[in-house]
């Protein structure tokens, strides 16, 4: 028995650590599709629709990368991951990239050996409470029972927030967003805390969203972005610049509607470089010249993705806020395509 | 004259390793062993190489860094600044709590159901059959999730206890509150306790009150045992057994009552304050769900083991016992069960082990056991998959082997001694 357990352990470890991770691009091309890690289901960010097709804001990033590599936004295998399984999945090579509301932190970037390629949503941790509770500030939550997803940065922020304010709480650890929603609605916890965008998305799926409010405190910085394994810089560049292409496209006014017209050539050299009619940016990445055009055509530019999935006209109803272009007072700022 | 000829001396030839049946099995085993060792060596070197390539050298240093997260059910002092190793110990304690509670409940339930399933009463026997078949044929994870869902969805929330016309009320003279966040029961408190003492460089606080109570209880039990022994001797010598129950009871109850009075023992009752009940002992819904589901599930298996054990005892034993005039209940307790134990104990051990290992499903209901802390949150926050999982497996292995050892020792003490 001892032996078999030991052997099992090593097998797991061997699988977890198997393979050498250079040439992710070659692997992806050989496979014919991109393996992209997403959530197990957060409305607006990544959720399968009635036909089993994944859709959402994070899913849009996956599709853009697939389109940049293959010219085909459907060449993606979506791998649902939980807060606990996501890093192992990425480190082991089960997925090529992770686009899953993952907060960019020092230790994840440095110690866990991942590379965050950018930020696709600037978020912060908030609290949701039933209106009937009569709480107006997170500092009034002394002694409250708090539902919290395990294995997330929010878990650590929560501990820090309550410690810093000298108030106590009872954590109820949960595994997935769906579980958190069920526990919260059943009243097994007084408040549910996660990224404010996630709370808004969760609230939008409630029967009566108006019975619940988000408290004004945002207790942390949560820059959410796609990430890849450390050590394969070529692949990291592809994902980074696919994301930047979406952001730049909004800034330059390239949309999925006018992209056909613009890719015939414009007076703006940066648009031409972006869309591959000038220069050889695609070749430098090891992709075709129209890589960025495909990425943008897949689901539209950043603004289109945002408005269609989580924007103010969707049930989730998030405003651009920090996620507006730098020219509009937001934080989105893509380095130039040159 | 006869000449003795030595039998021809057989020289060892290499081919005999394959063609000679005396050596063949050994050859095969040696080859298999070498293959096995090579496979292990390959796995180890492959893991080490790949980890080195990822730049993640195996190291256990992270265990002494602050954990940063909170745990709701903790039997020892713990806060978010405690190191990961302490979080793992808290998790281990939680695993042990649910395993011990589960084993006890499962045994009591299992034995009762197993005996009842053999009942001559048709309805009772059939009901028990339904119980056994429904519980052991559905995966335990589903029972755990189901128990949790029942608790959170059907029981009242703490706020339902508030106000003039509250929907829910506390039970047992306002001393117990049953909510969907768990059950709050009165806790023992000592107004003039003798405090705690730190052991292992302040790693643990040991309550001296509890120690005093346990020591006194132990001493009382020993004295009570001596009284029984004396009664046995008198019975053996004279045939008349002196009545000793009051002395045996008194020797336990009276000193305990005095000690509790001296320590200022009283109960702390739960009270609705703010968002939750405070005071009292909080049995969390996750603990209750896990405990219930594990015990009910394992009880179904134990019931079958007990039934098999009883059926294994020859009918002649029952008949002989009734011929001696023993009532059916005494026949069961004094004749059948003690003999059946010999059949029951070995499979019972493996069910205890199963229950303990199944407790690692705790994360499904958010119970922070060893899997939830060390192999869950710690793994995730530090990214040390290999180290935490190996450590976790080592701990589970240790727990399982300890249970096996104790139960095997017990098995040896009850098994049939052949003379």
From TrEMBL, chain A:
Pfam hit, one: SBP_bac_3
SMART domains in UniProt: PBPb
Domain (Solute-binding protein family 3/N-terminal): residue spans on this chain: 33-262
Signal peptide annotation: 1-22
Keywords: Signal, Transport
Annotated InterPro entries: Bact_solute-bind_prot3, Solute-binding_3/MltF_N
Similarity-based family: Belongs to the bacterial solute-binding protein 3 family.
Protein name: Amino acid ABC transporter substrate-binding protein
Automatic annotation (TrEMBL), chain B:
Keyword Cell membrane: yes
Keyword 4Fe-4S: no
Alphabetized CDD domains for the sequence: TM_PBP2
Gene3D superfamilies: MetI-like (1.10.3720.10)
Stretches that traverse the bilayer: 23-44, 85-118, 130-151, 210-227, 247-268, 288-313, 359-377, 389-410
Membrane topology of this protein: Multi-pass membrane protein
Sequence ranges assigned to domain ABC transmembrane type-1 in this UniProt record: 92-407
Localization per record: Cell inner membrane; Cell membrane
Keywords per UniProt: Amino-acid transport, Cell membrane, Membrane, Transmembrane, Transmembrane helix, Transport
Pfam families xrefs: BPD_transp_1
Similarity remark: Belongs to the binding-protein-dependent transport system permease family. HisMQ subfamily.
Protein name (database record): Amino acid ABC transporter permease
């Amino acid at each position: 028995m001892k032996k078999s357990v030991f052997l099992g352990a090593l097998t797991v470890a061997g699988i977890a650590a198997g393979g050498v991770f250079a040439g992710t691009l070659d692997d992806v091309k050989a496979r014919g599709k991109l393996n992209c890690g997403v959530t197990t289901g957060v409305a607006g960010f990544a959720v399968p629709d009635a036909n089993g097709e994944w859709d959402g804001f994070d899913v849009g990033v996956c599709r853009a990368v697939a389109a940049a590599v293959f010219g085909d936004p459907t060449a993606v295998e979506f791998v649902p991951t939980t807060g606990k399984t996501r890093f192992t999945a990425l480190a082991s090579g089960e997925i090529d990239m992770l686009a899953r509301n993952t907060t960019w932190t020092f230790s994840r970037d440095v110690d866990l050996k991942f590379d965050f390629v950018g930020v696709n949503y600037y978020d912060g941790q908030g609290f949701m409470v039933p209106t009937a509770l009569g709480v107006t500030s997170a500092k009034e939550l002394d002694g409250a029972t708090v539902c919290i997803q395990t294995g997330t940065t929010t878990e650590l922020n929560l501990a820090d927030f309550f410690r810093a304010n000298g108030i106590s709480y009872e954590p109820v650890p949960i595994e997935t967003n769906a579980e958190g929603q069920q526990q919260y609605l059943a009243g097994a916890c007084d408040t549910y805390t996660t990224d404010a965008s996630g709370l808004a998305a969760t609230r939008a799926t409630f029967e009566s969203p108006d019975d619940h409010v988000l408290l004004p405190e945002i207790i942390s910085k949560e820059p959410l972005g796609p990430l890849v394994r450390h050590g394969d810089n070529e692949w990291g560049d592809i994902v980074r610049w696919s994301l930047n292409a979406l952001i730049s496209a909004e800034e330059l006014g390239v949309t999925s509607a006018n992209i056909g017209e613009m890719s015939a050539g414009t007076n703006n050299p940066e648009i031409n470089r972006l869309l591959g009619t000038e220069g050889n940016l695609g070749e430098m990445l090891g992709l075709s010249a129209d890589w960025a055009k495909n990425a943008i055509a897949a689901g539209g530019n950043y603004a289109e993705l945002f408005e269609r999935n989580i924007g103010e006209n969707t049930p989730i109803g998030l405003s651009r806020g920090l996620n507006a272009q730098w020219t509009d007072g937001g934080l989105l700022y893509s380095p130039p395509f040159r | 004259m006869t000449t003795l000829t030595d039998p021809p001396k057989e020289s060892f030839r290499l081919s005999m390793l394959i063609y000679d049946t005396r050596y063949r099995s050994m050859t095969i085993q040696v080859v298999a062993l070498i293959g096995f060792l090579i496979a292990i060596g390959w796995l180890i070197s492959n893991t080490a190489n790949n980890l080195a390539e990822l730049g993640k050298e195996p190291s256990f240093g992270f265990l002494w860094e602050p954990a940063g997260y909170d745990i709701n059910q903790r039997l020892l002092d713990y806060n978010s600044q405690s190191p990961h190793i302490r979080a793992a110990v808290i998790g281990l304690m939680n695993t042990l709590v649910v395993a011990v509670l589960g084993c006890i409940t499962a045994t009591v339930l299992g034995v009762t159901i197993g005996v009842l399933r053999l009942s001559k009463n048709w309805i009772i026997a059939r009901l028990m059959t339904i119980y056994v078949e429904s519980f052991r044929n559905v995966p335990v994870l589903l029972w755990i999730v189901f128990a949790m869902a029942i608790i959170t969805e059907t029981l009242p929330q703490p706020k339902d206890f508030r106000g003039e016309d509250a929907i829910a009320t506390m039970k047992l003279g306002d001393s117990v509150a049953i909510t969907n966040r768990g059950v709050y029961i009165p806790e023992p408190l000592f107004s003039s306790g003798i405090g705690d003492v730190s052991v292992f460089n302040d790693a643990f606080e040991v309550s001296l009150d509890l120690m005093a109570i346990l020591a006194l209880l132990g001493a009382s039990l020993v004295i009570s045992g001596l009284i029984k022994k004396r009664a046995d001797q008198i019975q053996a010598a004279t045939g008349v057994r002196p009545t000793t129950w009051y002395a045996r009871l008194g020797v336990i109850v009276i000193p305990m009552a005095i000690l509790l009075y001296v320590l200022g023992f009283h109960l702390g009752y739960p009270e609705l304050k703010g968002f939750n009940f405070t005071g009292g002992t909080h049995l969390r819904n996750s603990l209750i769900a896990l405990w219930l589901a594990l015990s009910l599930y394992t009880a179904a298996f134990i019931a079958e083991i007990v039934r098999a054990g009883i059926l294994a005892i020859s009918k002649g034993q029952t008949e002989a016992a009734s011929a001696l005039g023993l009532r059916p209940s005494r026949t069961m307790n004094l004749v059948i069960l003690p003999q059946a134990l010999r059949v029951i104990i070995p499979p019972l051990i493996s069910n205890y082990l199963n229950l303990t290992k199944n407790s690692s499903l705790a994360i499904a209901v958010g119970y922070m056991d060893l899997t939830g802390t060390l192999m869950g949150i710690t793994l995730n926050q530090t990214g040390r998959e290999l180290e935490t999982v190996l450590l976790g497996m080592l701990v589970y292995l240790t727990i399982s082997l300890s249970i096996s050892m104790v139960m095997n020792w017990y098995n040896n003490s009850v098994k049939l001694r052949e003379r």
